[in-house]
TrEMBL record, chain A:
It is found in: Membrane. Keywords: Membrane, Transmembrane, Transmembrane helix. It comes from Halorubrum aidingense JCM 13560. Its main location: membrane. This is Proton-translocating NADH-quinone oxidoreductase, chain N. The keyword Transferase does not apply. The chain crosses the membrane at residues 12-30, 42-64, 84-102, 114-132, 138-158, 170-197, 209-227, 285-306, 313-334, 346-367, 388-411, 423-442, 469-488. Residues 133-438 form the NADH:quinone oxidoreductase/Mrp antiporter transmembrane domain. GO terms for cellular component: membrane. It comes from the Archaea. GO terms for molecular function: NADH dehydrogenase (ubiquinone) activity. It is a multi-pass membrane protein. The keyword Membrane applies. GO terms for biological process: ATP synthesis coupled electron transport.
From TrEMBL, chain B:
It comes from Halorubrum aidingense JCM 13560. This is Proton-translocating NADH-quinone oxidoreductase, chain M. The lineage of its organism: Archaea, Methanobacteriati, Methanobacteriota, Stenosarchaea group, Halobacteria. InterPro entries: NADH4_N, NADH_Q_OxRdtase_chainM/4, NADH_UbQ_OxRdtase, ND/Mrp_TM. It is a multi-pass membrane protein. It is found in: Membrane. It holds the Pfam family Oxidored_q5_N. The keyword Membrane applies. The chain crosses the membrane at residues 83-106, 113-131, 137-154, 166-189, 209-234, 255-273, 285-308, 315-334, 346-366, 378-399, 430-450, 470-491. Keywords: Membrane, NAD, Translocase, Transmembrane, Transmembrane helix. One of its GO terms (cellular component) is membrane.
Amino acid sequence: MGNVLPPVTALLPVLLLAFTGLALLLVDTVRPDARSNTSSAVAAALGSLVALAATVWLTVTGVGSADAGGAVLLFADAIKVDTMALFFTAIFASVTSLVVVAAHDYFHDHADPAAFYSLVVFAATGMALLAVSNSLAVVFVALEMVSLPSYVLVAFFKKNRGSVEAGMKYFLVGALSSAIFLFGISLVYAATGSLILSDVGDAMGSLDGLVGIAGLGIVMIVGGVAFKTASVPFHFWAPEAYEGAPAPVSAFLSSASKAAGFVVAFRLFTEAFPVGASLAADINWVLAFGVLAAVTMTLGNFAAAVQEEVKRMLAYSSIGHAGYALIGVAALSADGSGNGAVMGAAMAHLLVYGFMNTGAFLFVAMAERWGVGRTFQDYAGLARRAPVASTAMAVFMFSLAGLPPFAGFFSKYFLFMGAIDNGFVWLAALGAVNSVISLYYYSRVVKALFIDDPESSSSLDAVDVRPTALYAAVVFAAVATVLLLPGFGPVIETAEAAASALF
Amino acid sequence: MLEALIAFTFASALVVLLAPNEWAGRLAFALSVVPFAGGLYLWSGFNGSGNALTGGTIAYETQIEWLEVGGRSVSWFVGLDGISLPLLVLTTFLVPLAIVSAWTPIDARQSQFYGLMLFMEANLIGVFTALDFFLWFIFWEAVLVPMYFLIGIWGGPRRKYAAIKFFVYTNAASLLMFIGFMSLVFALGDSVSSFALPEISAALAAGELGSWFGIAPGTLAMGAFLAMFLGFAVKVPIVPFHTWLPDAHVEAPTPVSVLLAGVLLKMGTYALLRFNFTLLPEQASALAVPIAAIAVISVIYGAMLALAQKDLKRIVAYSSVSSMGYVILGLIVFTEYGVGGATFQMVAHGLISGLMFMAVGVIYNATHTRMVGDMAGMADRMPITVGILVAGAFGYMGLPLMAGFAGEFFIFVGSLSAPALPYAPVFTALAMFGIVIVAGYLLSAMQSTLFGPFKLETDYDVGPAPFHDVAPLAVLLVAIIVLGVAPDIFFEMIRDAAVPVVEGVSIDG
């Protein structure tokens, strides 16, 4: 189709998101009386859905795939649209649509909700840009485009101490890690003489005396990735931020923003710092990611197991899932036979995770909307008043734990099997053990919802409203989580093809 | 055909979930009769022969590729052979009866209860028909989820503990079994291109097993056998992995106990037969003596435990442990009658234990106690229920012309003359001794609760049970007698499917 439409068409999803964000901002600024919660939510949802449709259309028509002439390069190679970029854009757009739909009910009595929608869509634009960036400079700019709206979103309840404190913590850690990331980029530039990822990758083979500088730069870049994906050692902002932020924002950050961190990792550590050249130059980032993955998943799971608040448990569980997805980079090997499989599996896991984790946080958003409280005990007996939403939550919990009837089973299975095939049995074994542990705390939620009795007969009276849009978002996420099991074939095939094209 | 059956049952579950509580039970019963009719239709047109895993003709076979994992395809692969068809019929037969038996005791959140029952039935049908490992594993695990809720929400006072114990035990066991099986598939390497069980079975029989991560094929096969055996042993359950069972049974409401004992335990023995004994016969016969010893210990120890109980439901629960011991003994002897009898006993025990749990449940509905010392002379007040209960108990003891006799008789015939098992007569004689204990505890429990002058510690007015409580009992009793008088209606096809399994051993030695 490149002969009919200009190549820049490949950027359509990013442009659509940017346009939606700008339009929302424009209305919010120029005609403050015309803005309303509903119209802003509808506009944001439509914009992200159209972007999703465009992404799916581009993927189906094969733009950027190896069969259609390979990746589309734009703007002096600074932008590269390939199947992986489109795959991740689909995740971002799906999560954004779910979040803005849910936010409509969550912010029903907020004074100025319109700003929320433009900020979310701007962050999503940054993520989509991150997915297509092919130059370290673009990576950094896009990363900041994601981070800046995120800080504001976390502190969106500006009169709420928890929200503001969380935003402040997130901002401080984020600023520090941005600085480290940028410093890492400058060191890599110093050692390789280029910012374009593929040129950096070529230069990795002839570093001569600059191995130390390049290595230090890569370590710093790993740190930046760890911040964005909420992995050890830059994970400690996550529980605070996710707990203090409005729940739709937690959903957005823990699903989409985390996936954005992974698209950077997948892109940089395949094209800029290829496994073979890095290992030949004695820069063993594979081992570094292996240790990070192991520590992250274990720490996340053990910390989640001792939480008393559901939202905080989900925050730690999202750290655990970052550990699983890190296997996608940690289990790469120089000979490369199974590299595409394991990274593709990590991408598929992030897609499934995008639905089940967003759904889980949106259920928390619904509980906050009802005002039933935050702890496991506060959720006791909710299934009697809200059976549909509780069933959806049970689906999310069992799927996050990786139980077979749900999509989370397949994505974890493919991930661990990919690691085993690539010779990383220890990572897969650790992941399996962690999955078993996770069943404990996930099933606590299900037990509270369905099996425990409410604390008092009046404790469920708060459940008196039916927030339609929130319900719709939660149910849709649950349906997607279930349907991704039979429909896992196309997802994993697309993901594996996309990942294999990078090696 | 099978897809339609499973899809219909899933759809019924959804419909019932959304139905109002008042008539969810009746709707669920009406809908659950359809899968039973479907099961009978499948039976009438059954044209399979041999064992599905060893190249036999698979009836109602469907194979559609689903996705590919690392060069091996996963497919929607279902079909029936002489081993799975009787269990499918058993499942679809027991579920409507269990639903009717729930009408009296289940008085809250009915639509959810019956919806979950049907959801479980759909997955049970899947377990017994799936012939692709992945598909089978998904159904296998999906059975646990509704069971967890059924015990946890509608159970007795200690329901939370029992539900969690059941869930954790069986999930941990599943993981162990999964790892065992996957190591086999990986060690088969390029010789298999899918997770289809017939293909894996053929590759194993052809000796394609290679080494994997430096583990020699022999060691690996033995490790996989042990991992799968332990995984399924929890489900069966075999002593010493049985402790979740009495807790789950005592806390579960009657209809759930019926399915737990009647069908869920058979998942374990079915899987042992399908996986351990069909895929790895060599390892099984190498471990024949220890496995037979565990089987006999299960028989005797389970019966002894039953002897010591005061709760009628616990008595029946422990006697299930004992009965499952017979099934394991029948499987390990690797004779036509042993393996065939074990499969037959799965069906027979499903019917008889279902009857016993239901009858105890009917008495409990009226008396609100299950303790042996709390009541006496129930026969005066509930003559029909008690009559059927006594008949069922005799079935349990192996009264001729009832299904239990046929099953145990086949097993003993098979195990007395088992060439693959050293000291076979000794094991058989010890296992037979179990029957004496069974008779002992059942007779003494019945004598003190059912007969003599009427006495009840709890303050309830006891009269004859309502028709819809008794009707399922009568239907079950008829089925037990039919199967006892004419075991060949199932045993022919079971034997046909069991013979190839037995030959798996005699080839090597």
